User: Fold these one by one.
Assistant:
Number 1:
Amino acid sequence: MKQQKYQVLKQYFGYDSFREGQEELIDTILQGRDVFGIMPTGAGKSLCYQIPALMFKGITLVVSPLISLMKDQVAALNQAGVYAAYLNSSLTQGQYFKALEFAKAGKYKIIYVAPERLLTESFLNFAMYADISFLSIDEVHCVSQWGQDFRPSYLKIIDFLQRLPKRPVVGAFTATATAAVRDDVMRILQLKNPKVVTTGFDRKNLSFSVKTGKDKDRELLSVIEEHGDDSGIIYCITRKLVEEVYEKLQKRGLSVSKYHAGLSDEERRNNQDDFIYDRKQLMVATNAFGMGIDKPDVRFVVHYNMPKNMESYYQEAGRAGRDGEEAECILLYSAQDVHVNQFFIDNNRENEELSDAELEAVKEKDRERLKKMTYYCYTGDCLRRYMLNYFGEYAPAYCGKCSNCLTNFEEVDVTKYARIILCCIEESRERFGQTVILETIHGSQSEKLKKNRMMDNSYFGTARDVTMERLKQIMKHLLASNYLTQTDDGYAVLKLTELSYDITVKGEQILLKLPKQKEITSYTNGVQLKKGGTKAYRNVAAGNSNPRLYESLRSLRNELARELNVPAYVVFTDRSLLEMSTFLPKTKEEMLAINGVAQAKYERFGKEFLREIQRYCEENEVDAKPAMAKSKYRWK
Ligand code: ADP
Ligand code: MG
């Protein structure tokens, strides 16, 4: 089974390894037990049901709320050589019955179905007699009224399940983690002893920043410019602003589309497709542009305004970098944003069924959430940590790539001071506590030091050039990492440990992430090691050995995608092209070792790309390819 699972992963999806949570979910489903997968956007939930679907004997039904989402997933599966179809209102009557006929004939392994179809006579007519092994419910939070996207038709799922002659295995998937939603899913869908798998919410490939400058347009333009031709989404708080920002960008000749609830259905659909199919590079939108946008290669999401709460922010920002490559999430904050959100809260009449008291309670909660969102824009702490803490997860104080970590923290080499501390303790024969030692090396003139003749210690005053605060931080680190201990007899006397000698004798280096020091400049040994900054995808691309080949593979890919009328990533992802242009595969085997190149895709497109690579190699007299290094997907 294990072997087979990996084979399917490689053959159909072209990947070598699973991401966190995927394997556990797949194994459980294959054992016939229900699952409930709670994983952040971009974690790879689709594979968790698609792989079992390919391995089960019978059919897999996937309930999904959005037409566009189904369409793209089915297109991607078809390209991968899987027989899949969708049944929703975008099909004409004729197409729908044709598809059902094929379904009855057992032509499809995976069928995506809109929830409102489940209880229709025609669909039941098929489902009652079909061999359904597995029912997967995507975006399962739609079943809950607590979620942001409640869809009453999701309530039909349980009815449907109960009508089936044999209950299939049920899998539920969502990125929404709140307890209320979780309880609703379990209760309403009556999952049977499900294995609940929750992966961390941290998205390491995303870097977060908040900008509070006055001129939002200038900030926005500089982000866009920095990103070259990367895809990006710009969220605005109102339709009116969407129109304004859209105009401004268009006037500058940028490739931009727009999306909000004021546009006609058709216009929205077209604009969304323009963006997903890479006909337009930028999308300016309200939060109506959202669920179901699983374009994997969005490289940046700019919030032109602060959204109403952290949940919305994380969800929207999370649409960046679903492919696991580096991506940026930038929030442009102004005080005005708070007022607009407050106005929305005060005038919230969304739910007419609520009594006045209930409505007031809802508003109170919303105000509280808005406050937390506002703090996010003001905090000097690590943004990633703030966010993860908000969602109830632990996180270290320094992520090293958010705007706060990059401006408020620095990595410093404190080896010199660590040595001074340890040596001073040793010379004074391990008789003192923290205060005496720190005051000694800092060169204090206290009575206590005089009494203990610490002025004679050869380390007296040798750490004068740093603040006491920093010395305390270093001391804390030495204690926490067992380079030092304290006696616990009430006096807390410092004692050396075996590890102390790693620093004093063996010369181990101690690097610490510390809040930036503003006042002291003569910090001789404090070398700043990291510049930081986020990496735009094109910088990664520029780092490969053949950027020109990368560009021509990209145009080949885009051309093919246009011909087939599928999004570009459905042909090959940027990552695949990047690897091709770096490793220069020459044979089928070498091509199959490229990340994202599966059997079926190789058969469809492989030769053309091999030819292009060969042509490039000949024209540029590039020698035998460098050793083929198997890439690891950079997710962890
Ligand atoms: P989710 O539904 O959880 O938001 P998706 O299922 O849309 O995420 O997956 C996001 C992206 O990650 C897709 O482009 C998918 O092909 C890719 N992906 C999923 N699993 C893996 C894996 N094991 N290795 C590499 N890429 C993966
Ligand atoms: Mg999904």
Number 2:
Amino acid sequence: MQAVNLLDFDLDGLAAYCEQLGEKRFRATQLFRWIHQKGASDFDQMSDLAKSLRSKLQGAAVIQGLSLISEHVSSDGTIKWLFDVGGGNAVESVYIPEDDRATLCVSSQAGCAVGCRFCSTGHQGFSRNLSTGEIIAQLWFAEHTLRKRFQTSERVISNVVMMGMGEPLQNYNALVPALRTMLDDHGYGLSRRRVTVSTSGVVPMIERLQHDCPVALAVSLHAPNDPLRDMLVPINRKYPIAELLEACSRYLQAAPRDFITFEYCMLDGVNDSDAHARELIALVKGRIPCKFNLIPFNPFPESGLHRSPLARVQAFARILADAGIVTTVRKTRGDDIDAACGQLAGEVQDRTNAQTRMRREPVVVPVSAIQRSARGGRPA
Ligand code: SAH
Ligand code: SF4
């Protein structure tokens, strides 16, 4: 029988599993804390866990992280990890340190089926959903690897954004237990406001998330009208803007923040005119409390698209801000290691591309130098 991976469980799931083994819930809590708070991957490390439980777990269960393929460190401190998820697929996570926080950008799928025009993950196509364990393993690995590296027992990662590869709301069943583990006081203890799900607009799942696990919501809008959005974000043909905005309004009733963040990728000559900005204002003003985050497009060769000039991005931002809409322009981080939004594309599937990238990357640390075996995927 295949061993159960305990990273696949949120605390309720682990309690149910422990119950099957004839163990009480508080044992599951202890186990959960060992795994997520201490980064343990070996039952023998769990000194205060009853020996009888430890021996039941040996053989039946594992704590199995992801296999690390590579680590790239940017000159601005951003770190990109590439993980092997089998079958020729690789996914990426990005650590982004800032003055007052440290954010981990987490992947939810190998590839993505939505196929947005401006996204390299979308261009890659869809391979498969990640499991709960594969989603949470990214945080588990990053948190405990960095604690060791920074020689601290304090929490390192303060924020998680589901903005890596994939559409998280198209992998809903695996996503929710992973989110719950991030929020759980016995897990990572992150506040709901500091965990953000970013979606291209899977309307029915926005509604479910509102009930099951309301965290901060970011919506990738990218266009002020349906014809343009149909072209840029194909899921718009199924869930057009009006339906999406209604779902956003309803979401706010349960959301931990009192606004929705709209992401808007600035594409030269496509969606970045003054008229587009005014159309956006007409769309959202008085209808939905929101903030805009303008993302300078990160080009990749196959897209055929270009980044809006900075002056255009600033003029666009000014029009929104003058209408009273809080607007920020996202800083591009990890540019030199292709870790910026929309540049994440499991390099294993595209080796030619990977090689072109490698030449531009300033620091490439081989796996062997990263204090752990590539196969076990274990931080502790
Ligand atoms: N699938 C989800 C989350 C992952 S994408 C979503 O679409 O929201 C995370 C963010 O990066 C989204 O806002 C997405 O639109 C943006 N993005 C994708 N490709 C990009 C690119 N090439 N340049 C800038 N932003 C991009
Ligand atoms: Fe998928 Fe998001 Fe990329 Fe669109 S932007 S293809 S939804 S990952």
